[in-house]
Amino acid sequence: MSKKILVADDDFAIGEMLQLMLEGAGYEVEIQTDGRTVQQMQEPLPDLLLLDIGMSGIDGRMICRQLKSQENTRRLPIILLSASNNMQGVVKDAEADDFLSKPFDMHDLLSLVAHYVGRTEAGS
Asked: pTM of this prediction?
């Protein structure tokens, strides 16, 4: 069974690019462009959330902190996406598990995803 990844980015083109790369590696991918919907996610949860910091209308760091403070979502691995290269402090403050700077290398993305959810059969 493939691992499910939720990509939350208000730039649909970036979401589609991530979806193509991740589905090519064997993951199941859902794209969400509305930060408020991500904040209110319910079961079944994805295996990983790739969350853009610059969501329109709501800050991705705030979404991350909220998800990490709730019992049902606190163990969900969250990787923040940002055009900034200096993300260590932001990751700690938002309680994220990791970050990926845009633009990113496909191999770096797949390696990071595999670290948090394991490799898929197609990606092995």
From this structure: 0.91
